[in-house]
Amino acid sequence: MSRLFMIAASAALMLGAQGVAAQERPEVPEEYRVKKLPSQSLSGPRFGFTAFTGQTADNRDSIGLEPIMSQFGWQFERQLVSTSNGAQALLEWVLLVGGVEQGEFNGSMSFLAGLRTRDGFEFGAGPNFNYNPDNPDQLTQSMIVAVGATVPMGDFYVPVNVAMGLAEGGPRINVLLGWIVG
């Protein structure tokens, strides 16, 4: 008997769902509609440095490493929304390798959600993960907050960003720049 009840209830739900799906949606005023505007790929190489502070800087110093290291990598960017006034909602993935000048190989991956204004000013925030093969048992995480600008220069763009990684052991300051041919 319960099997028959389940079949009947499922059929009633499916028929009811079709009626709900067939209803018209209310009209959205023109000024509130999302406009599908062309988007650009602003991915490209990034390079710069990271400066360590606090206990992390002290720990690096105690093992003979400088409290600053180089960074090289690539930023992948996707525009989610591009508005008619020029603002863009963004998702960015930044993959970096750092410390090669000191014999290190620190891998870093950041995922940021952000906004860029019509004038190229941008800001974002998201998680950051770091891996050092010299300490394979410890994957460090932090929250990263970034600001910067993407400046057009003729046929290409120059992004300049400053970020702060809020992590245990003290904040990390990152400065990155690069280029985009677009």
Structure overview:
It is a single chain. The chain is α+β, with helices and mostly antiparallel strands and about 180 residues long. The protein folds into two domains: about 1-30, no CATH class; about 45-180, Porin, CATH 2.40.160. The protein is built from two helices and nine strands; from the N terminus they run αβαββββββββ. An eight-stranded antiparallel beta barrel has the order 1-2-3-4-5-6-7-8. It is flat and about 70 Å long.
Q: What top-tier CATH class of the largest domain fits best?
A: Mainly Beta
Distance between the termini: 66 Å
Shape: flat
The secondary-structure element order is HEHEEEEEEEE
What is the β-strand count? 9
Largest sheet: 8 strands, antiparallel, barrel
CATH topology grouping of the largest domain: Porin
Helix content: 10-25%
The total tally of domains equals 2
CATH architecture of the largest domain: Beta Barrel
Output the number of helix runs: 2
Q: Which strand order does the major sheet show?
A: 1-2-3-4-5-6-7-8
Radius of gyration: 24 Å
Task: Tell me what portion of residues adopts beta-strand conformation.
Answer: over 45%
Instruction: Classify the secondary structure makeup into a structural class.
Output: alpha+beta
Poorly predicted regions: none
- Could you tell me the mean pLDDT? 85
